[in-house]
Amino acid sequence: MHTFLALGLLSYLLGLLNSTRLTFIANDESDTAIALTQIIRGLQQPSLAILALPSLALSDGVCQKERSVYLDDFLQRLHRSNYKSVVFSQTELFFQHIEENLQGANECISLILDEPNQLLNSLHDRHLGHRLSLFIFYWGARWPPSSRVIRFREPLRAVVVTRPRKKAFRIYYNQARPCSDSQLQLVNWYDGDNLGLQRIPLLPTALSVYANFKGRTFRVPVFHSPPWFWVTYCNNSFEEDEELNSLDSIEKRKVRVTGGRDHRLLMLLSKHMNFRFKYIEAPGRTQGSMRSEDGKDSNDSFTGGIGLLQSGQAEFFLGDVGLSWERRKAIEFSFFTLADSGAFATHAPRRLNEALAIMRPFKQDIWPHLILTIIFSGPIFYGIIALPYIWRRPWVNSDVEHLGELCIHMTYLKEITPRLLKLKPRTVMSAYQMPHQLFQKCIWFTLRLFLKQSLFRALTLQL
């Protein structure tokens, strides 16, 4: 038993070291067709592009014959499931099909029946690695390729399907973790003797994978462009570095960002999504312009910050970057952060204390004037009401004379002695007729008015 275990472990290690070796299981070709159909249906996409080269590196004619048998069966099952498929036998036509879909912003899923090391360089050189494109590799291998031999670098999305035994298939994905190593991770499997595909959808969503970057560090090109970035340069280099592909020379350029709208937005995103970032100076201190070698459009590349993204020396570029057709073919753009005259990212609204609702709208320099207005408005209102009573007090003839505690009514005396008593009538001012507690009512009226009470009730005061 130990001998068989050692032999099995040895075969597994040899399969990892020699990952480019094709290993096929030449039994029951329909198992492969059924498994591939279930895997494609797990992606929940209605169309598929298939690359089946006639000169595959299949070891012998038997493997070539097996590939053609399960491919025909696979296409029949795929069409019965109402899937649209297109089969290519030439890589150039296959690449053109993917480019047309990316230019139209259409999601494109491709099944490549070949080893990935023969096509990865072409996919990277033609910038076909995109969030809308997914490449599924199946060539009948028992084990996934070793990361020391083949690396699926971002932003390429790649799936490798292996067949360790009969009716068993494993699905590996290079973007199953938020780190940047792009190593293949087992995310799903198919078992023909059990329940088929383990889970649907086939791959984890980008929202679940990249919700937490777990402290990953990103390189972000930056240049002085207020109000988006306020940058202080720590060197005197202004000309673009001749060696654009040298990451060491770029990281030596020290920059210090002191503020800006996009700087604050980036800090908020890094805190929420748990990642770190490092600013690097954009060559030429510009967004970047298109340059072509020897006037050939096929070799178009960009300078500046866009050139760093295109060459893979930076992960993303945040700022007032203009969108053009040439730039869109070179790099990928996200949603717009400046759709109108301004866009703001703030904290979520929270419940405020209702007890301070009357104090919150006013600043500190407003409160002294407001308090003085409340204090003096009541007396001023009282004076406005009381002045007419003071100015218009009439003079009337006095009918009562006071001699100590004795009161003498002069009208009565004149009636009983009309000729004996001749007195000149004396005029006095009329009695004060202002309403009762007028001052207190004026103070209470102004307080209710400033405290936003009902004005109608305040006017019911009896003056």
Automatic annotation (TrEMBL):
Residues 1-19 form the signal peptide. InterPro entries: Insect_Ionotropic_Sensory_Rcpt. GO terms for cellular component: plasma membrane. The keyword RNA-binding does not apply. It is found in: Cell membrane. It is a multi-pass membrane protein. The chain crosses the membrane at residues 366-391. Keywords: Cell membrane, Glycoprotein, Membrane, Receptor, Signal, Transmembrane, Transmembrane helix. It comes from the Eukaryota. This is Uncharacterized protein, isoform B. It comes from Drosophila simulans. The lineage of its organism: Eukaryota, Metazoa, Ecdysozoa, Arthropoda, Hexapoda.
